[in-house]
Design brief:
This protein has 406 residues and is mainly beta. Helices cover 8% and strands 42% of the residues. The chain has a five-stranded mixed sheet with strand order 1-23-22-21-20, with no helix packed on it. Strands 11, 12, 13, 14 and 15 form a five-stranded antiparallel sheet that branches. The protein has a four-stranded antiparallel sheet with strand order 2-26-25-24, with no helix packed on it. A hairpin with a 6-residue loop joins strand 22 (321-326) and strand 23 (333-340).
Length: 406
């Protein structure tokens, strides 16, 4: 005897499933109709076929050493040269990432062989956190603009801190951006006199965003502009500014749609033609990119660059660390080089075939590109399980001769 109720139930389930699949497919088709072209260099190389950049020097900045300082989580390294001294900063936590008690720490020195001990960026917050962020040089002053939140990623905002060179400490200057904004790239001066800073907003679709300031006061409120985003992403972003045109490149997220006939995950792109005031809707590009914070800019050679993991077959593995490059004066990437893989012949940095290399940040200085990044060491020696192991990193540096990127 047939069970008609069971058959009707199954038929209804199949119908609903197909309808949902058609909706997803339709979304893919609509997005695929406007794929953003970031790459015009022919076949994207596989990770094993990448050419290594010559002459790269590697240095450890802050090692993973919880037995000494108690800190496990480390992420979001930033770097700047200010008055012939190197400053670095990062988010630090003795507990889990993105939880109350997280702090921002910094270090400085004339070279990377003699850095100071940890210098806090601001005082710890009650039931809150000051985490990683960016540096900004304004006239004769150095600022740290740091992501901050309450509880576990609640009420995300940006706080400003000013360096006091006499006391060698950071002075809190208040909240400068709200609405979930977390800064991720050093602010850039635009031709219209305003300053723009890339980041993202935590909440909703977690869209990429920029913050814009017209006042000469760094600690005045910045206007937050969210990028129109129709899909779920984790919109940590970077920008390239060229006159009135700003291109934003964002990472994807775990639930970001896959694109038919393209690798996954991809770099997602939005464009502005009015100095970042209004934006196109975020769209997928034709360039594979691991789901990690990217960093981009324009070199003194006129080449655009993008640091992330961009290969044809890395999928969502945060290795190798790569740099995509354009030809001078051009706006698409045509070459991808390897900065480093998990293993390197240098005992000063962590070397392991499964090492994850992520969250780059870069600055050009005297003929070299200084790239800082996180390294989880292949999780060798890390203690704990599950969330306890998230982003328990060391902070490292790669110094790349600019003449090796031509």
């Amino acid at each position: 005897m047939c069970n008609c109720k069971w058959k009707w139930g199954l038929a209804f389930f199949v119908l609903i499933f197909n309808i949902n699949q058609e909706k997803v497919y339709a979304q893919h088709v609509n997005l695929a109709d406007s794929i953003e072209v970031l790459w015009t260099g022919g076949q994207i190389p596989n990770r094993e076929d990448l050419v290594q950049v010559e002459g790269v020097q590697f240095k450890a900045i802050k090692k993973y050493e919880p037995d000494i300082d108690g800190f496990k989580f480390l992420h979001g390294v930033a770097i700047v040269n200010f008055k012939n001294k190197w400053f670095v900063s990062f988010g630090h936590n003795k507990g889990f990432e993105n939880t109350a008690g997280e702090v921002a720490n910094s270090m400085l020195g004339e070279n990377f062989n003699s850095m100071t001990k940890l210098i806090p960026v601001g005082s710890p917050l009650d039931n809150g956190a000051i985490s990683h962020g960016v540096f900004y040089k304004s006239k004769n002053n150095l600022w740290s603009l740091m992501g901050s939140f309450e509880g576990e990623l609640e009420n995300v905002h940006t706080r400003a801190f000013k360096w006091n060179k006499n006391k060698k400490e950071w002075k809190a200057k208040g909240v400068i951006a709200e609405d979930g904004f977390w800064p991720l790239q050093e602010p850039i001066q635009m031709d219209n006199g305003k300053i723009i800073m890339a980041g993202f907003c935590v909440g909703g679709n977690n869209p990429p965003a920029v913050a814009i300031r017209s006042s000469s006061r760094v600690n005045s409120k910045w206007k937050v502009v969210k990028i129109p985003t129709s899909v779920k992403v984790w919109g940590e972003s970077t920008i390239i500014v060229d006159g009135n045109e700003v291109i934003l490149i964002s990472r994807s997220g775990f639930k970001t749609p896959k694109m038919k006939n393209l690798p996954h995950p991809l770099a997602w792109v939005a464009r502005s033609y009015d100095f970042g005031e209004t934006w196109s809707t975020l769209k997928p590009s034709n360039l594979p990119m691991v789901a990690s914070k990217p960093y981009a800019g324009i070199l003194s050679t006129g080449q655009r660059y993008l640091i992330s993991t961009n290969t044809n077959n890395s999928a969502n593995e945060r290795s190798p660390l790569t740099i995509a490059l354009s030809n001078p004066g051009k706006n698409t990437f045509t070459k991808i080089l390897k900065i480093r893989g998990g293993e390197v012949g240098n005992t000063d940095v962590e070397s392991h075939p499964n090492a994850k290399l992520a969250y780059p940040y870069a600055v050009e200085y005297k003929g070299s590109l200084y790239v800082v990044y996180s390294n989880d060491g292949g999780k060798q020696g890390r203690r704990g399980e599950g969330r306890e192991l998230f982003n328990n990193n060391s902070a490292e540096l790669a110094i790349i001769p600019i003449n090796q990127l031509n």
